[in-house]
Amino acid sequence: MTDDTQESRFLQDPYPAYAAMRSISPVRPVPGTGGRPRYLVTGYAEAREALGDARLSKDTAAFFEGKGSRRRLHPAVAHTMLASDSPQHTRLRKLVTRAFTTGAVAELRPFIARVTDELLDQWPVGEPFDFVASLAVPLPVIVICELLGVPQADRPDVQRWSAQLFAAGEPDVIDAASHSMADYMTGLIATKRMDPGSSLLDRLIAARDGDDHLSEEELVSLAVLLLVAGHETTTSALGNALLALLRHPAALDRLRVNPDDVPAALDELLRFDSAVSTATFRFTTEAVTLGGSGIPAGVPVLVALGAANRDPARFPAPDQLDLDRNAAAHLAFGHGIHRCVGAPLAKAEAEITLRAVLTRFPGIRLAVPADRLEWRHTRLVRGLASLPVLA
Q1: Among 272, 236, 252, which residue's Cα sits nearest to residue 376?
Q2: Which runs of consecutive H residues, i.e. helices, occur in the chain?
Q3: CATH number of the domain encompassing residue 258
Q4: pTM value?
Q5: Containing domain of residue 130, as a range?
Q6: pLDDT at position 92, please?
Q7: What's the structural domain count of the chain?
Q8: Which tens digits make up the pLDDT trace of 77-131?
Q9: Among 2, 75, 105, 113, which one has the highest count of C-beta atoms within 10 angstroms of its own C-beta?
């Protein structure tokens, strides 16, 4: 079997490989770039522990310092809130949390519903079309750009740069996209300083946290992070959730007949096929023991959220989609201080989208066999490149 065939199989369905690795050990060393070791976490308990352990740092700048990396990521992308530890992370997170509270998201719901309906109005009946391109991509982009105050004319460029930031195996593409995105946000911030509005980005520009304030680099970095994280993972979550339902007719029929059950089903859908396959970079600042395995200091630790959410020790019969399961403890949004700040918004978009699709297009079905679907080649995000359906 060729490497390309193995990769294709893994992209189609990584869960058998995760299960095999977990059966040997839920925490194990795996080959890394340049022969450097790294550890992969596939067990639920171990993943939850790792995500909450302060000895596993997210300060990538500290890790790569002096290692001679040839990467040329823009600092605003390389040094985001995600790539920081407390107290810096806590300070930055406080400035954006209010925009994603349940109450704040509730105010956005009418806008999300209106955009969803406008996109669904364009769906052809009786002809194949791509759910990803026609709804899963544009909806989250429109919502987060609206929240941040990105002009409509600029949104296609923003979406393209964001997608390029996840181009696994193409470091030059990623690095170039990081500069394009950061340069754009720097210009947008300058424009908003001259002509202030009421968007989240305008509020961040004027942010004050006691006697503290955002530096220019922090401001650009937060803007880029919110823009990218605010739609890439939601796009994948929407596609993964609809595909799971299309491949499980009983669950699909249940939600089609009772669309009010969609909110309660979201946690199980998120658990079943997590949009974030592997959590963002962490490394040990000292030797730690995780799941009975000793990990030396200064080693990368990859937490496979998708694998953890299929751990039978936490979720019995994990490969079954069970809408009656209590899956609220899933790790699709992470855990601990770095848990996804935008989780309430992502869940609102998923609920509104699935409810609208199943209500307006009750006959929706796959237009191609499931094993012919194409998955995106990324290391962090698990998502479909396209999802051809018939409505």
Answers
A1: 236
A2: 3-12, 15-24, 44-51, 60-64, 75-78, 88-97, 102-120, 131, 138-148, 155-164, 171-194, 200-205, 216-229, 232-246, 249-257, 262-272, 305-308, 343-360
A3: 1.10.630.10
A4: 0.91
A5: 3-390
A6: 86
A7: 1
A8: 877 888 889 988 888 888 888 788 888 899 999 999 999 999 999 999 888 999 9
A9: 105
